[in-house]
Amino acid sequence: ISYKFKPYNYSEGISIMEYLLIGAIILLSLAVHNMPVAYAAVIVLVLRLFNLTKALDTLSAQGVNWGIIILTTSITWKHITGSFQTLPGISAIIAGILAAIAGSSGVTLLKDAPEIAASLIIGTMIGVVVFKGIPVGPLIAGGVTYFLIRLLSFFNR
Q1: What is the DSSP secondary-structure string of 1-14?
Q2: Predicted structure pTM score
Q3: What three-state secondary structure class fits 51?
């Protein structure tokens, strides 16, 4: 089984299926009160409607890095303490390392196969609605997906 993905070409134009998928993501996001995903999908829809491919390419290439910087700054500013010396703090450091590894794999997967992002969002929505989970983001979900793809390809040799 080959898992080579071809990069998405935004200049090819948008198909009716893409409109339907973006619309479904917006509606589902609103239904489960996941506003960050709804806002992101609306931004993508607007950029696609106005054929702003340069902006989409820039967001695709740099958006994850910008988001990580903003998120890390926000968390660091609010929570910088000496709590890393406690058992929960040490556990959190280990969890952070594992999450960073998963996130890195998720970034790789999303860069190589951006079309998988919609599936990650839909899976997250199902997890939120059916299992009462919380949306932690596409990077971790992408990292888990990357791990599952690698595991499946290992067993399908």
Answers
A1: -----PPP-GGG--
A2: 0.52
A3: coil
